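Contributing new records

If you add data, match the layout below exactly. Sequence lines come first and carry their own label; structure lines follow with theirs. Keep one chain per record. Anything else will be rejected by the validation script.
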Amino acid sequence: MLIQKTFHLGMKGEIARGKLLNLREYRNELVDVEQATVDAEGVAHFDFHLSYGLRGKVDLVRAPGDNPAQLLFRSRGGNLDVLGVLECFEIKPDLTEIVLTLDYSFISPVARLVDYLSRSMERFIDEQLERIETHFARPITGMRADSTLPAPINGNPRYHEEED
Protein backbone atom coordinates (compact mmCIF):
# COMPACT_ATOMS: atom_id res chain seq x y z
CA MET A 1 0.00 0.00 0.00
CA LEU A 2 1.13 3.52 -0.68
CA ILE A 3 1.17 6.08 2.13
CA GLN A 4 2.23 9.71 1.84
CA LYS A 5 2.34 11.91 4.93
CA THR A 6 3.40 15.54 5.38
CA PHE A 7 4.45 17.15 8.64
CA HIS A 8 6.43 20.21 9.73
CA LEU A 9 9.41 20.91 11.96
CA GLY A 10 10.17 24.42 13.16
CA MET A 11 13.85 24.45 12.18
CA LYS A 12 16.15 24.80 9.17
CA GLY A 13 16.09 22.01 6.59
CA GLU A 14 19.58 20.62 7.29
CA ILE A 15 18.96 20.60 11.03
CA ALA A 16 15.55 18.91 10.60
CA ARG A 17 17.06 16.22 8.37
CA GLY A 18 19.87 15.61 10.85
CA LYS A 19 17.45 15.32 13.78
CA LEU A 20 15.23 12.85 11.89
CA LEU A 21 18.25 10.72 10.99
CA ASN A 22 19.36 10.64 14.64
CA LEU A 23 16.93 8.01 15.89
CA ARG A 24 18.32 8.23 19.43
CA GLU A 25 16.94 11.75 19.72
CA TYR A 26 13.27 10.69 19.54
CA ARG A 27 12.97 6.90 19.76
CA ASN A 28 11.60 7.10 23.32
CA GLU A 29 8.67 9.12 21.95
CA LEU A 30 7.52 6.30 19.67
CA VAL A 31 4.52 4.29 20.87
CA ASP A 32 4.19 0.51 20.52
CA VAL A 33 7.76 0.30 19.21
CA GLU A 34 9.78 -2.39 20.95
CA GLN A 35 12.96 -1.84 18.98
CA ALA A 36 14.21 1.18 17.05
CA THR A 37 17.96 1.00 16.58
CA VAL A 38 20.63 1.63 13.98
CA ASP A 39 23.58 -0.75 13.94
CA ALA A 40 27.22 -0.04 12.99
CA GLU A 41 26.49 -0.91 9.33
CA GLY A 42 23.74 1.73 9.17
CA VAL A 43 20.86 -0.75 9.14
CA ALA A 44 17.80 0.54 11.01
CA HIS A 45 15.92 -2.19 12.88
CA PHE A 46 12.28 -1.64 13.82
CA ASP A 47 10.00 -4.01 15.73
CA PHE A 48 6.50 -2.70 16.54
CA HIS A 49 2.93 -3.66 17.40
CA LEU A 50 -0.05 -2.67 15.28
CA SER A 51 -3.75 -3.02 16.00
CA TYR A 52 -5.64 -6.28 15.41
CA GLY A 53 -2.68 -8.35 16.55
CA LEU A 54 -0.42 -7.39 13.67
CA ARG A 55 3.26 -7.03 14.32
CA GLY A 56 5.78 -5.33 12.09
CA LYS A 57 9.43 -6.15 11.95
CA VAL A 58 11.61 -4.53 9.34
CA ASP A 59 15.28 -3.80 8.68
CA LEU A 60 15.78 -0.66 6.58
CA VAL A 61 18.86 0.37 4.60
CA ARG A 62 19.60 3.54 2.67
CA ALA A 63 19.37 3.40 -1.08
CA PRO A 64 21.74 5.51 -3.19
CA GLY A 65 20.44 8.88 -4.36
CA ASP A 66 21.78 12.13 -5.80
CA ASN A 67 19.48 14.65 -4.12
CA PRO A 68 20.71 15.64 -0.62
CA ALA A 69 17.18 16.74 0.35
CA GLN A 70 15.95 13.16 -0.15
CA LEU A 71 16.66 10.04 1.85
CA LEU A 72 15.81 6.90 -0.09
CA PHE A 73 15.44 3.63 1.82
CA ARG A 74 14.27 0.06 1.37
CA SER A 75 13.76 -3.03 3.49
CA ARG A 76 16.42 -5.71 3.73
CA GLY A 77 14.65 -8.09 6.07
CA GLY A 78 11.64 -8.61 8.29
CA ASN A 79 7.99 -9.31 7.58
CA LEU A 80 7.44 -6.19 5.44
CA ASP A 81 8.65 -5.17 2.01
CA VAL A 82 9.24 -1.41 2.13
CA LEU A 83 10.38 1.24 -0.33
CA GLY A 84 10.39 4.83 0.83
CA VAL A 85 11.63 8.36 0.53
CA LEU A 86 11.91 11.10 3.14
CA GLU A 87 12.06 14.59 1.61
CA CYS A 88 12.87 17.85 3.40
CA PHE A 89 11.75 21.21 1.98
CA GLU A 90 12.66 24.42 3.79
CA ILE A 91 9.55 26.55 3.23
CA LYS A 92 10.53 29.39 5.60
CA PRO A 93 13.86 30.21 7.26
CA ASP A 94 12.92 28.22 10.37
CA LEU A 95 10.22 25.90 9.04
CA THR A 96 10.81 22.66 7.16
CA GLU A 97 8.15 20.56 5.50
CA ILE A 98 8.86 16.84 5.64
CA VAL A 99 7.18 14.48 3.17
CA LEU A 100 7.32 10.76 3.90
CA THR A 101 6.29 8.44 1.09
CA LEU A 102 6.11 4.70 1.80
CA ASP A 103 5.18 1.80 -0.41
CA TYR A 104 4.87 -1.25 1.81
CA SER A 105 3.42 -4.71 1.80
CA PHE A 106 3.23 -7.39 4.45
CA ILE A 107 4.84 -10.61 3.25
CA SER A 108 2.08 -12.72 4.81
CA PRO A 109 -1.14 -12.65 2.73
CA VAL A 110 -3.24 -12.83 5.92
CA ALA A 111 -1.43 -9.86 7.50
CA ARG A 112 -1.75 -7.98 4.19
CA LEU A 113 -5.52 -8.53 4.19
CA VAL A 114 -5.93 -7.53 7.84
CA ASP A 115 -3.92 -4.35 7.23
CA TYR A 116 -5.89 -3.57 4.07
CA LEU A 117 -9.19 -3.86 5.93
CA SER A 118 -8.09 -2.13 9.14
CA ARG A 119 -5.54 0.45 7.87
CA SER A 120 -3.44 -0.49 10.92
CA MET A 121 -0.13 0.58 9.41
CA GLU A 122 -1.46 3.94 8.23
CA ARG A 123 -2.87 4.75 11.68
CA PHE A 124 0.40 3.62 13.27
CA ILE A 125 2.46 5.88 10.97
CA ASP A 126 0.10 8.82 11.67
CA GLU A 127 0.55 8.41 15.41
CA GLN A 128 4.34 8.12 15.22
CA LEU A 129 4.72 11.18 12.97
CA GLU A 130 2.44 13.23 15.20
CA ARG A 131 4.56 12.28 18.23
CA ILE A 132 7.80 13.15 16.40
CA GLU A 133 6.38 16.48 15.25
CA THR A 134 5.17 17.30 18.75
CA HIS A 135 8.48 16.22 20.31
CA PHE A 136 10.46 18.66 18.19
CA ALA A 137 7.88 21.44 18.66
CA ARG A 138 8.06 21.55 22.45
CA PRO A 139 8.24 25.13 23.62
CA ILE A 140 11.07 26.36 25.80
CA THR A 141 9.99 26.36 29.45
CA GLY A 142 8.34 29.62 30.40
CA MET A 143 7.66 30.67 26.80
CA ARG A 144 4.42 30.44 24.89
CA ALA A 145 4.32 28.28 21.76
CA ASP A 146 4.05 30.02 18.40
CA SER A 147 0.46 29.42 17.32
CA THR A 148 1.26 30.27 13.69
CA LEU A 149 2.95 26.93 13.05
CA PRO A 150 1.01 24.55 10.81
CA ALA A 151 -1.27 22.07 12.53
CA PRO A 152 0.09 18.53 12.96
CA ILE A 153 -0.83 15.84 10.47
CA ASN A 154 -4.03 14.85 12.27
CA GLY A 155 -5.45 18.36 11.83
CA ASN A 156 -5.83 19.07 15.55
CA PRO A 157 -4.16 22.20 16.91
CA ARG A 158 -0.98 21.44 18.80
CA TYR A 159 -1.35 24.33 21.25
CA HIS A 160 -4.42 26.31 22.18
CA GLU A 161 -4.51 30.08 22.43
CA GLU A 162 -4.47 31.26 26.01
CA GLU A 163 -7.58 33.11 26.99
CA ASP A 164 -7.15 36.51 28.64
